[in-house]
Specification:
46% of the residues lie in helices and 14% in strands. The protein is built from 20 helices and 22 strands. Helix 12 packs parallel to helix 14 (384-404), helix 15 (424-444) packs antiparallel against helix 19 and helix 16 packs across helix 18 (544-554).
Length: 645
Amino acid sequence: MAPQRILMNLGLDALLAAVSLPVAVWVASPGAWPPPQWWAIAVPGAVAALLLAGLPFRLPQQYLRFVALRDLIGVLGAGIGGAVLFALVAHALGAWVPPNPAFPLLHAGTLTAALLVPRVLGRLRQTHRVGRLSEAPAQPVLLLGTGDAADLFIRALIQQRAPGYQVMGILAPRSRAAGRRIHGYPILGAIEDVGTLLDRLRAEERLPAGLVLADPDLQGEALEDVLDAADRHGVTVSRAPRLTRLDPAKREDPGAARRVDLRPVAIEELLDRPQVPLDREGMARLVQGRRVLVTGAGGTIGGELARQVAALGPAQLTLLDHGEFALYSIDLELAENHPGVPRRAMLADVRDHARIANLMRQVRPELVFHAAALKHVPMVENDPLEGLLTNAQGTRIIADAARAIGCRAMVFISTDKAVNPTSVMGASKRLAEMYCQALDMQARHGQGGMRCVTVRFGNVLGSTGSVVPLFRRQLERGGPLTVTHPDMRRYFMTVREAVGLVLQASVVGAADAISQAAAGEQDPLPELSDGGIFVLDMGKPVKIVDMARRMIRLAGLRPDDDVEIRFTGLRPGEKLFEELFHGQEPPRPTRFPGLLMATPRTTDAALMGAAIDEIAASARAGDTRAALAQLARLVPEFDHNTGAG
């Protein structure tokens, strides 16, 4: 606060202290008035007592227009302290005091009241002061939630000169709050009753223009119910601004206008996935102080791996990708957000054996996250040999090169499309899984070498080539939204959650198992000795057409009326239902939330490596028929869907 503002506050408080003293004397003893010379000493003494008592409460530094409850408590403390200090000094000096024994209490009351007046008036004067004038009428809304976000949202509206929204009422998380009020606005019922309330308001012709979600925990099925109720009545649903956008205490300029910009509901909020507790300490032990390499670092999964690994403090982080701009982008982001982490960004193709081997000798990583792959099913169907070379041969090259330089562990990112594959992409990833399993069995059975942890999961929301960005682009163009089949279902997970669980699996499969084995303790997951694969618990599969309809509604439009949904038929390699487990590998729960275990058949690493080399040789020779025949022999469950339908 500026010095002149502090001096102004001091002068105002001194004046109020001087005025409150005669008022307190008159209230305490109307008939007993002190001599005139007493005032010459008492008034400066009362002022000094207040100023001294106000120092611990930082009374002069208060911003009168933005006083809060804590500031008012400070005013109360300063008022009581100033009155008590004045009474003690007067008694010690033997000066005249009103004969009423309640004088110190009355003095404290009048002094506190005098100090509160300008602060309350300043707060009221601030009301309706910010923002631009607007001729547009305020939109009536219902507020869902009663926490800090709801409180700050209403306070921000109160301060607007011309608020864009008018709160009709509030819905609380629980029904027992019904009938109470927040800032004068009534709580009309529970959030679960939103459908009934909207029906009633429609009958009364008082339907709101929108619902504002102020409860951050309102997600999943509960949010689905709210959206369904709003859809029936054509009411929009939005999120209240984040707390940091509303709370003046969390902004550099508390006097600045608080804009009330509502946010759209994100499709990720409908997944209804509970937060899985993660072993952050174990992740730190795995990564901190070690050299880490992330392949495919420019992709969605690789990029998020790089971000989370950088936050754990590696000794060096090497980013590898074949795409120049993607690699540049993630390297620049990490330079800005984690400048203290030593990094190397290296352009390389995982299929280039000599380049990868040389790179591994330079970097000598202790931990490798292998996320580089060709993942788009139709693209790999168009060029199957490229998929085989990158996904199968590329994985073998990375694993062998890392193992040759003494890497401690490699984490291989697989996919649910490797289960009963109908596409070359899925079959090539299953081939890579088998090789990594074989290497890990060698390490676990005492034959030495690098631990190899395989993690399998489904679709990641918002990833490159996924359906959500496609739908968003199609919505921006006005539609139609294209869905291959009305019954198509997929598993979905947010990228941050997926990578967090990948790191959790890495801790369980590599770090903790090694340390416990070295200490002679029992293996935390004995299934891994059989070449087990970690499978992330993806929850329930989601119908793609339902996701399309929901995204249309979240955009404030009506499916089929405003935006068409068009079915285009299955593409080559696609199947209606993705699976996380093969019929012969039933899922096994683990004691780690969010992680399941699959134990598919395994094979010898040398035989598997030789088979991959044969496929790679056929692929480099351009012999598609021979390469696919060898692939089908190695992955007998591969049922290739070569045509649309």
